[in-house]
């Protein structure tokens, strides 16, 4: 685990890099490559206020309440709330989903290396090689990984901006399918529902009486990362593909390190650790399966966010989260509670309906 000072500044770096790299990787699946539409991005700004900010507060409040990583924390949280142990599956779902997400990022980067360089072998082989490298990187000190990730992500942005061509922005009719894209971009590619910000901030919240001083830097970093995506939604060149692959491998290594840390705290057997860490990545090497897997990323990511919102908003005792957040006024807490209990779940349900309509051609 990190010390408190390191934990405080590495969490925004993680939010910035994760948001940018995830959005770039999911851009084709979301249909957001070169997506210059005023209405869409205005709704995205709005969603960052009513969805991402309250959800980030939720994650940090849970970290402050539980004082442990998500997998172990849900044991305590379900016991305190006197709820079924089935709700602990939220933590297990996240630790399985994180390596799967890492596999998706690696698959996207490997695919673009193949496109740019025309590899003499399948990009699935490159994916497997990258997975091995990511496992090795996960053994390095976290501070080194964060510095390397930040530098690689900046390189992705700089090369992308310099290579970007000017596109005409326009106003379009806003549909439910676009709302699905907005919510997915805000929550899933923003890295929410994974418990990573929660896990990384566990030490930082120990010295803070209020959640907001920890939350705001994370949220602003998400805004910057997703905002930069507007200019870096497409891989333009050989060099761009290479730096993207480097950043993807480092991020995958960090993902695996976080999951392994949760397993160690939960005292999970080494065999189960190996299966959960590696299998979700390796399935991405199955030929012609990636397009379906990206849909799984979207739906499962939204489902995780929905489960967190329902558990915290409806099943936990009100006094527990109020003490953890420690808003300056009761009115602020009530607004946050309405957003988490009603607005976030309803937005996710509408997004899921929008994606189903998009997939079925309705």
From TrEMBL:
InterPro entries: SNS_sf (IPR037272). The keyword Nuclease does not apply. Keywords: Membrane, Transmembrane, Transmembrane helix. It comes from the Bacteria. The chain crosses the membrane at residues 41-62, 89-109, 121-140, 147-167, 179-199, 211-232, 238-256, 268-286, 292-317, 338-358. This is Uncharacterized protein. The lineage of its organism: Bacteria, Pseudomonadati, Pseudomonadota, Gammaproteobacteria, Moraxellales.
């Amino acid at each position: 685990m990190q010390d408190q000072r390191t934990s405080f500044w590495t969490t925004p770096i993680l939010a910035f890099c994760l948001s940018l790299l995830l959005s770039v990787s999911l851009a084709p699946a979301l249909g957001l490559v070169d997506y210059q539409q005023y209405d869409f991005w205005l709704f995205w700004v709005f969603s960052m206020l009513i969805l991402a900010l309250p959800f980030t507060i939720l994650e940090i409040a849970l970290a402050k309440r539980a004082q442990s990583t998500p997998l172990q924390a849900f044991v305590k949280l379900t016991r305190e709330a006197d709820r079924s142990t089935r709700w602990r599956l939220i933590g297990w779902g996240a630790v399985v989903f994180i390596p799967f997400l890492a596999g998706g990022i690696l698959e996207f980067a490997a695919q673009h290396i193949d496109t740019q360089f025309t590899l003499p072998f399948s990009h699935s082989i490159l994916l497997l090689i990258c997975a091995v490298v990511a496992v090795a990187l996960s053994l390095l000190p976290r501070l080194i990984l964060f510095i390397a990730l930040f530098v690689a992500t900046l390189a992705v942005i700089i090369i992308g901006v310099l290579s970007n061509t000017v596109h005409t922005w326009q106003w379009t009719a806003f549909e439910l399918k676009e709302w699905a894209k907005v919510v997915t971009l805000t929550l899933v590619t923003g890295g929410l529902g994974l418990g990573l910000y929660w896990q990384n901030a566990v030490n930082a919240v120990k010295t803070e009486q209020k959640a907001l001083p920890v939350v705001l830097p994370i949220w602003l970093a998400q805004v910057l990362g997703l905002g930069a995506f507007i200019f870096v939604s497409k891989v333009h060149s050989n060099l761009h593909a290479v730096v993207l692959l480097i950043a993807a491998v480092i991020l995958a290594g960090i993902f695996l390190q976080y999951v392994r840390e949760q397993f160690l705290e939960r005292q999970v057997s080494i065999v189960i650790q190996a299966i959960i860490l590696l299998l979700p990545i390796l399935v991405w090497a199955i030929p012609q399966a990636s397009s379906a897997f990206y849909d799984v990323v979207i739906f499962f990511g939204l489902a995780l966010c929905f489960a967190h919102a329902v558990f915290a908003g409806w099943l936990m005792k009100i006094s527990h989260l109020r003490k953890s957040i420690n808003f300056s006024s009761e009115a602020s807490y009530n607004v946050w509670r309405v957003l988490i209990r009603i607005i976030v779940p309803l937005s996710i349900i509408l997004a899921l309906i929008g994606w189903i309509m998009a997939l079925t051609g309705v």
